Amino acid sequence: MNEKIIFNIANINRCTTAEGPYKRLAIWFQGCDILCKNCCNEQLQQFIPANIVCIEDLVEIITQSKLEFDIEGITLLGGEPTLQTKSLIHLCKKVKSMGLGIILFSGILRHQISTELLSNVDLLIDGPYIDSKKEKIRPWVGSINQKFHYLTSHYNNSIENKSHRNVNINVGNTVLFNGDVILNL
Questions:
Q1: Has residue 19 been placed in a domain?
Q2: Which residue, of 15, 102, 111, 126, is most buried by count of CB atoms within 10 Å of its CB?
Q3: For the chain, how many structural domains are there in total?
Q4: Does residue 184 fall inside a structural domain?
Q5: Is the dihedral of CA 156, 127, 97, 24 positive or negative?
């Protein structure tokens, strides 16, 4: 019997420039056991069913985003994506076969992540968010302890020197903010 590959996903932004270089699709995974103080995605820490999505549907969303928006890659964040490693390996293999780049954000360190998963990722940004060590220069990371690991030649460290600190706002049935969001209401 074939095992169904599913994901617990909090949110998907089909085209963003705020979660990595170039146009990309971003997937936020539900659930995190790291519990960083003042996490920017605190609502994603709970282990609750959010949107249960099968791999076929997720690949279709990515395929449509590539056709519609000409995305360059995907970004996996959370929550903690590596808590869904088994399914993530299958997804990353499919995404790589589409010629898209893959960026994985993880609060755990590189040596703690599955080698099979990392062999299907182009860029890993690892390390927990540490509120007392806020990052003010490099794009996409919250604190200075977080490291960029270039695992393939798909990306290189020149992306760290570009000004990519921005925000995307998508309005539909709900309003989705992503990127360097500071709201003063």
A1: yes
A2: 102
A3: 1
A4: no
A5: negative
The Cβ of residue 180 has, within 10 Å, a number of other Cβ atoms equal to 14
Give this prediction's pTM. 0.87
Which CATH number is 15's domain given? 3.20.20.70
* Burial category of 132 from C-beta neighbours within 10 Å (exposed 0-12, middle 13-18, buried 19 and up): exposed
What's the domain range around 163? 6-179
Helices (H), the chain: 55-69, 85-97, 115-118
30: left (phi over 0), alpha (psi -120 to 50) or beta: beta
Write the single-letter amino acid at 83: L
User: What would the pLDDT profile of 82-113 be if each residue is shown by its tens digit?
Assistant: 999 999 999 999 999 999 999 999 999 999 99
pLDDT of residue 180: 47
Phi, then psi, of 172 in degrees rounded to 5: -150, -130
Closest CA to 146 of 168, 165, 123: 123
Instruction: Tally Cβ neighbours within 10 Å of residue 16.
Output: 22
User: pLDDT at position 23, please?
Assistant: 97
Instruction: Work out the angle at residue 175's Cα, subtended by the Cα atoms of residues 102 and 49, and round it to the nearest 5 degrees.
Output: 65
Number of other CB atoms surrounding residue 176 within 10 Å: 15
Q: How far apart are CA 168 and CA 175, in angstroms?
A: 10
Please, what is the Cα angle at 130 between 82 and 150, to 5 degrees? 50
- For residue 126, the cross-strand partners are 106, 147
